[in-house]
Amino acid sequence: MRDEEAPDTVDDRLAARLGALRTERGWSLDELSRRTEVSRSTLSRLERGELSPTTAVLGQLCTAYGRTMSRLLMEVEAEPPQLVPAARQTVWRDERAGFVRRSVSPPHAGLRAEVVEATLDAGSDIAYENAPVPGVEQHIWVLEGTVEVTVDGTVHTVRGGDCLRFRLRGPSHFHCPGPERVRYALMIVLP
Questions:
Q1: The pTM is what?
Q2: Rounded CA separation 14/52 (Å)
Q3: CA 13 to CA 49: how far, in whole Å?
């Protein structure tokens, strides 16, 4: 939601960028709703900054726009510096999903890789219907806890210290079986 005392928040810039992406393509809200299966009213509220998107909805929008979530979030930030101090790393939260995402090494012009730190609460699930960019390479290195990642219909149990790597071409699912939350680093490399 919009914070009236801080009009230039990440959510405000994200709302404006989502509206701009739709306009650039010449899509109506109805067309975007058809492509994402997100209601027209929800899309309208997102673009006006009245509603912050869930991880699932943002994933559907990224798929429609052919962007990774990190790339979309990078687009709402100022030009990123080469050194990204911890205090300047963009953090995005989906409280309902129990998901926190920190852009440790955001996308940058001329670079194909980015690094994300994520936490998922015990018992939480996140599902993405499609790859935001077909063939995107992902490496998931679990720092603490356990996460079950489903890719190409196969469930991989990834524990502390383990690394799962793959090219994503379809849906994926993340589940934290607990009993503690999971914290992992995700490296995303564009094809």
A1: 0.65
A2: 9
A3: 9
